[in-house]
Amino acid sequence: MRQKRVLHYVDENRLSWMLPWIQLLKELERLGIENHVLCRSGGTLCAALRANDIKCLTYNPLAQWFPFMSRGIGRALKVVRPDLIHTRLSSAAALGGWWGKHRNVPVVSTFDKFAKRRYYRHSNVLIGCSSAVTAHIKTLDLPCACFIGTILNPIEAGHYTRDESVRKTTRAVENVAAEEIVVMGMGRFVGWKGWDTYLKAIALVPENKRFRFYLFGCGEEEKKLKQLAERLGIVHRVKFKPFVSDVRPWLWAADVFVFPSHADEAFGLMLLEAMACKTVPIATDIPGTRDIAFKDRNALIFGVGDAAVLSEAILRCTDVQLRARLSAEAVRTAERISVSEIARQTRDLYECIVPVMCRE
Fold first, then answer.
1. Comparing C-alpha atoms, which of 131, 180, 164, 108 is closest to residue 354?
2. Where are the CATH 3.40.50.2000 domain residues in the chain?
3. Which of 86, 116, 189, 243 is disulfide-compatible with 108, CB 3.0–4.6 A?
């Protein structure tokens, strides 16, 4: 039987989730899928794909709302002759969906957020990156959809297995004592990430406790967050750090990871990475975390914006036995949402659903 040939279309040239996506593509390749990627030129994505021997074409579309003008997509379909198009992100779904419909190529679209209906009018198979997103998709009543399901965004858990020597080195560089508890936050500095709640919680933790607080990232609210830290009187207690391309050394150095996002978060990929790194997750109780973070089983949970409960959860992490139990279960959770398992689910989707669509 001939390999399934898939054109993965993402109308971007940079992706925050580039590494796990490339790992997923490589695993799909191992399972017999022939992958081709169409993305924008420039940025880091195309180079990373080619460095991993993944066939990559580039095209910068002219206008999202006039897909017939984006003839480069049509040319890519002619070159690749795929069995299906798999889109990621909204603009790719809108453009790829139109071309798939007009070239009679089935379109699978993964929703990576709570996207609007208009982008997905021509998509045939709709996949939510979390059960919450899938529930959202079902409310959209999309006319071409013949299947709606959930396939979680994976990570390669082994890539994040804690390196104790790196942990010791990183903590030594930061002058962190062995008995100190490192609490980490990482992500974009935008309002819905909830970093103001994290800072307010730090202010509620007594100073005599042995905690070291960090916040990594960049974004439009960086100045605002630093000003809030000043008003709260915690500038000397929380260390702001810029975005890092490899988060592992810092997550390995950490003991606790705080994920204070609001309900706009579709799926906590950064949270999953931190769990694989053997930190104790403290996460908001929102739909986007409920597939992976379970109260007092593998995580501590608090309500959106509830700095008081977040500070109490941080203080609970002084319990060494609690930290050991939660972090061990967090690692097991990350291992279950592995690239190999998600690749198998994706391959099965291609094999079982697409042939049915092609016969219709």
1. 108
2. 4-154+338-359, 157-336
3. 86
How large a percentage of the chain has pLDDT more than 70? 98
Contact 160/276 with Cβ under 8 angstroms? yes
- Output the pTM of the full model: 0.91
Domain 157-336, classified CATH 3.40.50.2000, yes or no? yes
Give the count of beta carbons closer than 10 Å to the beta carbon of residue 245.
Answer: 6
Extract the tokens encoding 309.
């409960």
Main-chain phi, psi angles of 158, to 5 degrees: -60, -25
| Two tokens, residue 267 | 């799926």
Quote the CA–CA distance of 327 and 275 in Å, as a whole number.
7
Angle at 246 between CA 319 and CA 111, to 5 degrees: 90
Assign a CATH topology to domain 4-154+338-359.
Rossmann fold (3.40.50)
> What is the spatial distance between Cα 90 and Cα 93, in angstroms, rounded to a whole number?
5
pLDDT at residue number 238: 98
CB 16 within 8 A of CB 270: no
Query: Is residue 281 within a helix (H) or strand (E), and if so which, with residue range?
Result: strand 280-284
Distance CA 25, CA 175 (A): 40
Alpha-carbon separation of residue 30 from 24, 27, 42, 47, 353 (angstroms): 10, 5, 28, 21, 20
Higher pLDDT, 358 or 245: 245
Give 259-316 pLDDT, tens digit per residue.
Answer: 999 988 999 999 999 999 999 999 999 999 999 999 999 999 999 999 999 999 999 9
Confidence of residue 245 (pLDDT cuts 50, 70, 90): confident
